[in-house]
Amino acid sequence: MVSAPENIEWRGAQAPVPYREALAEMQARNAAVAADEARELVWLLEHPPVYTAGTSADPDELLDPRFEVVEAGRGGRYTYHGPGQRVGYLVLDLNRRGKDVRRFVHAVEGWVIETLAGFGVESWAVDGRVGIWTRDVDGREAKIGAIGVRVRRWVTMHGFSVNLDPDLSHFTGIVPCGIDEFGVTSLARLGIALAPQEWDAALRQSAPRFLAALEGETA
Prior knowledge:
24% of the residues lie in helices and 28% in strands. It is α/β, with parallel strands linked by helices.
């Protein structure tokens, strides 16, 4: 049976949350969910400018460390977080959802893609190329969202980020997710002005279908 969104704590931060602070809180919540001592969590927030390194990060891809660099513990390589980029941290229990990490990642991709479509942005996932992709203003393919996850005791951590209106020049300090042949874009660059609260509300509205996909069911 598909879990109701009401059974999950939804949290939306309006002020930027320092990355290390969010990471510590997410790790603690992961342990509490695994011990059945807390509800699952969807946490939507932004960070002050920071570069984060995944477990596959290549030091050669840290081109200009103008901001703090933090080892995140998630999969993947280097990524950037900062104001104007909405991050979604997911602390969800896969013990009750079939213990299928691949299905979890695909469900997250589908959730972001569906939510972007609601604002008129066609986007997609590409096998072998991490992230969410769209057509930029110059007609070329560009990344509009990133995905990076970790699963500990079958409870998830980290999640996804979507570029609403970040300073895109901040991405030039790294090779984003190890992919240098494509650019990075945002909803604002595509001509769509969107407040974080609007994005959060749209994610919440499409959450039942995300949870259905996560559990291998149809909403």
